[in-house]
Amino acid sequence: MMRRLIGRNGGGLRSSAGLTLAAAAGISWFATATPTPVGAAAATGAIQGRVDIRQVVPATERRPTVTDFGSPRERDLVDRLKSVVYLEAAPRGAFERSEPGRAVMNQRNETFVPHLLAITTGTVVDFPNGDPFYHNVFSLSKVNRFDLGRYPSGKLKSVQFTQPGIVRVFCEIHSHMNAFILVFSHPFFTVTDDSGRYRIDDVPPGVYNVIAWNEGRASEPRGVTVPNAGTTELDFELR
Amino acid sequence: MSHRGGAVATTALIVLILASARAGAQSVTSETISFAGGRVTLGGDVSATFSCTDSEISTSSVCADDTGFFNYTDYEHSALRMMRIDLTGSVRATNRLSFLVEVRSEDGGRLQPYALYARIRPWLSKPIDFQVGRVPPTFGAFIRSTYASDNLLIGYPLAYQYLMSIRADALPANADELLRMRGRGWLSTFSVGNTAPDRGLPLANAFRWDTGVQVHAAGRLVEGTMAVTTGSLGNPLVHDDNPGKQVAARVVARPLPGLVVGASGAVAPFVTRDAAASAGAANSISNLTQAAFGFDAEYSRDYYLVRMETIVSDWRVPLVQTPSIHLPLRAATILVEGRYKIRPGLYAAARFDHIGFSQISGTTRTAGWEAPVNRVEVGGGYSLLRNLLLKGAYQRDTRPAGRTQKINAIATQAVFWF
User: Fold this and answer.
1) Which of A27, A61, A155 to mutate to test the interface with B (most CBs of B within 10 A)?
2) How many secondary structure helices (H) and strands (E) does chain A include?
3) Is the sign of the CA dihedral A172, A173, A175, A181 positive or negative?
4) Band of the pLDDT at A158, cuts 50, 70, 90?
5) Which residue, among B93, B64, B96, has the nearest Cα to B81 in the 3D structure?
6) Which residues in chain B touch residue A134, judged by CB atoms under 8 angstroms apart?
7) pLDDT in tens, A181-217
8) What distance in Å separates residue A177's CA from the closest CA in chain B?
9) Quick one: A195 exposed, middle or buried, by C-beta within 10 A (0-12, 13-18, 19+)?
């Protein structure tokens, strides 16, 4: 059964305190929801759809290299089309199910790859330096403040993200390098593909609010009912 | 900037910073402004600096200024009491041609252009660039740290900021005149050429840029730059005031990860036509040169960074009267500075800096032609946000000449950049 719900806010959201960055972006990370049961919860469903970005945030340019003697080296352009789609409030018991894992954010051609990473709390992110010169990865985000120092090509340093929230990642040496890591305390989120498509699997049947997030912009929460063993279609448009 | 004006500017910027910080990281402009598909980019660096010294001759009962003029820049402003706004822009006309500009305002003055040049890359596949116009100084390493956001501390290195008594438009007639100006570079006066009191020159001027042509080629481990410009190392110019040109070169090598080693050289006639003529040396003006050689190194790894730079500069001035000035007039500087990151956003830094001078003999004494200066600065910075930095520093300057022979200064600086 496929249903499409537009413009409805589901209930059951409890906002969390002490998450300034998340709150600034209109996002709640700790909240738990009591899903409205849709029959017996024997099987899980899925939410899928597309995030349409009407105004793409342009890639960060270098600061004008006025004091340099020559042209800056070529670098890769950042893909800012990808978004994160997530449940605003996770079902009870979701937190026990999330298993911390490992993820990689490379530094290549003066770009963080991927530019956007979505992980669960406890995940360790590796930051290998794939460039033939120094990088210095750091974040001053309140939820996960770290500085890996300077390290050369081929070296790798890691950070465990223990608090949910939005973490902006930068390079101290190359000011145009930046990335986002979204840390969730539940597993009901996903990153869209190149065409903006997404799919969140294994969602217990119930009523949820779903949010799409891109480069600091968050959609209004959209209510959706996930049926038993079915898939619900839900599209977003971010301006 | 006046004491009160500096305090107001500093307070205003700190209020802005704190308000921004409270509003959250995402609300402050933190990225370079770009438009036209990235062809036009704008950046900026705004800093407010205020300091108090323990000067015994100050008339201020609350917070004394730098009465020894140790920190005064080429623009007759103190680096320790300054509101500075730098705006930089880049226009990429084609893949081969860009235009770069920097305008700057100090202490509320109107914005003035400090850099304006075209960058040309004739062969896209080869890392060779030509820069034409008012170009960045070729000599030395510190030029890339002149912005407040790049400077580890608040004060500047003596070689690039400290005003010596030597001038391009006024010349000492003999050794006695030169010795009389020891420690008075902020307002020196000589009897040959322009006799009006005016500021002297720094060894190398990192804040005013020269005009000419620069070529730069980069390899994997080594890069080189060469320039022909109108002025001299201590006195960059837009319009030349003598028939000679400056030739400057710099070579940088990166033999190991984190290690950068550089060597620089520059030579140029520095005396103005009028001053040379007044000294009866109009025909030998091309021999009245400033010639300098510098060596610098930087090593960084993990949470620390160490830099050193040493410069030796020789000036040749006309010999007008006895007791004659022993040539060349030599100045030698060395600085060592370091930074250690204590925790994310917080660092400590220190710099030791010395400038010394060659000896000359006057009628009654033999001494350095200028008074040597030692500067020690320790401090640190804390980033409220990625591009909002608060610095604090203690600086001690000593010099065995002048009305004020030492100062102890406490300085604070707020820096915002994008």
Assistant:
1) A61
2) 2, 21
3) negative
4) very high
5) B64
6) 257-258, 300
7) 999 999 999 999 989 999 999 999 999 999 999 999 9
8) 10
9) exposed
Written as one letter, the residue type at B292 is A
DSSP B207-254: SS-EEEEEEEEE-SSEEEEEEEESS-SSS--SS-SSS--EEEEEEEEE
Residue B67 pLDDT more than 80? Answer: yes
Closest CA to B225 of B312, B129, B90, B132: B129
Q: Are B237 and A129 in contact (CB under 8 A)?
A: no
Q: What is the dihedral of CA A96, A99, A100, A106, to 10 degrees?
A: -140
Asked if residues A113 and A105 have their Cβ atoms less than 8 Å apart, the reply is: yes
Q: Which residues of A touch B89 (CB under 8 A)?
A: 64
Place of tokens 């590796």: A126
**Phi and psi (nearest 5°) for B179?**
-65, -30
Contact A131, A113 (CB under 8 A): no
Count of alpha carbons within 13 angstroms of residue B368, beta-carbon side:
18
Query: Using omega within 30 degrees of 0 as the cis cutoff, is the peptide bond preceding B236 cis?
Result: no
Pick from B27, B29, B34, B125 the residue to mutate for testing the A interface (most A CBs within 10 Å): B34
Query: Does A18 contact chain B (CB < 8 Å)?
Result: no
CA atoms within 13 A of residue B353's CA, in its CB half-sphere: 25
Residues of chain B neighbouring A131 (CB-CB closer than 8 A): none
The reply to whether B218 touches chain A by the CB within 8 Å rule is yes
pTM beyond cutoff 0.80: yes
Question: Does ipTM top 0.90?
Answer: no
CB contact under 8 A, A147 and B341: yes
Which tokens go with A200?
């969140």
Cα distance between residue A186 and residue A192, in whole Å: 18
B306 at the A interface (CB within 8 A)? no
Q: How confident is the model at residue A96 (pLDDT cuts 50, 70, 90)?
A: low
Burial readout B168-200 (b: 16 or more C-beta within 10 A, e: otherwise)? bbbbbbbbbbbbebbbbbbebbbebbbeeebbb
Please, which pLDDT band fits residue A97 given cuts at 50, 70 and 90?
low
